[in-house]
Amino acid sequence: MSQPADTKEGYVAGYRMLERQGAVPSWIPPLRLAALSCFRELGYPTRHDEDWRFTPIGPIVDVPFKLPPRGAAAVERADVEHYMFEGAPRPELEERPAVDDSEFAAELVFVNGSFAPELSSRRALPAGVIVAPLAEALTSMPAAVEPNLARHADFEHSVFAALNTAFLEDGAFVRVEKGAALERPIHLLYLSAEVEGPTVSHPRTLIVAEEASRLTVVESYASASAGHTFANAVTEIVVERAAKVDHVKLQQEAVTANHIGAMYVTMGHESVFSSHSIALGGAIARNEVYARLAGERAECTLNGLYLGDGKRLVDNHTSIDHAMPNCASHELYRGILDGQARGVFNGKIMVRQDAQKTDAKQTNKTLLLSDRATIDTKPQLEIFADDVKCTHGATVGQLDAEALFYMRARGIGLADARAMLTHAFASDVIQRIGLPALRERLDGELLERLPKSAE
């Protein structure tokens, strides 16, 4: 087995190959180089690091994952249709009239981090809305990308954000201009596929909602085939003054896949941001959310649902930084763990000295369906202001014995009763998602999983 130092040098060799590929704006190479320098200086996290002490990542850092050549993975629509929302294939990405009843305005598909035009589609978008592959945007509209790309992700202190930025090449760029509104959501689908051995991808997403704009984005991560893969994703979201962004992250990769994803959100005055994180797959899956409320009267909502079975490890780390007064945050994460699965939840709320009149609430509830499943939960409050309303709490337990008895007394079998109660527990998060098509899909997938995990 390769050692971490060896895998680091493997990434450095891959970076040198990337340097020789394609034309990019003049400011991209120095950015990549700075990130590579941070990656080389930062050590891989271990259990001695507080934020990683419950999350061993040997299966990620000890394996020599390699970045495949662009287009090396042949993925057919039939192989991944389950993860898509569009009803018909498109030969290429182009503007088309909205003549059908699709709920989605655009669906951009990426394979191992590279845009796949043959799997993607986009209808006519309203004026002031840009939805494009990041590589294309860097070439055709670099001035639109530069002000925000890599300005919010903290690659100087996060080794995986540094690695992603060093390999910054493709992903999605979404911008809604001042006062514009996109009524239909956008779907960004990132697929991982093994190519001649363990394969890594570094998807990058940049979403900018300018003043008084509105949009909804679904960001999905899935496996195109069985195989040993590692998706190292970074998403930056900018919500300017009075803008509103609804974001859903759906992570459902194969049991042989690994996923580390970090989302950095910067919020302006009177902005509204909501996130729904649904983690259903992966051998190791870690989802990080960093939200900074940098304008007065901003409102942030973070909801999450995570399911684990077998020997999966699912880790959720959230951080909400109240930097300005009169802001509100609401956070609800629920987990369901079975078999020998392990869960981690670390939710941090920081209220800075000037952030008076802060209203922050955080709740984490975990349901253990097996006596071998475990959860490490750590809610945190750091308050430096004196006029605030802040609460947090965590509960861990099993299904309600009285409710089970009540249902069985009415002729419902034990497995069905357990599945119904578990479904109700999870539905509280799913029903908060504002997209009917996605709610229906998640509800169906939940029902398919629960009878197996409830026996």
Question: What does this 3D model show about the protein?
Answer:
The chain starts with a helix and ends with a helix. Strands 1, 2, 3, 6, 9, 11, 13, 15, 17, 19 and 21 form an 11-stranded mixed beta sheet that branches. Strands 4, 5, 7, 8, 10, 12, 14, 16, 18 and 20 form a 10-stranded mixed beta sheet that branches. Helix 2 (28-41) runs antiparallel to helix 7 and helix 8 (401-408) packs across helix 9. By secondary structure, the chain is of the alpha/beta class. The protein is globular. Helices cover 22% and strands 37% of the residues. The longest helix has 18 residues, at 436-453. Residues 88-101 and 451-455 have low confidence and may be disordered. The protein has helices spanning 4-19, 28-41, 58-61, 77-80, 134-140, 142-145, 159-166, 401-408, 414-430, 436-453; strands spanning 106-111, 114-115, 121-122, 129-133, 171-176, 186-192, 199-201, 204-209, 214-223, 229-239, 244-252, 257-267, 272-279, 284-293, 299-308, 313-322, 328-337, 342-351, 358-368, 374-383, 388-397.
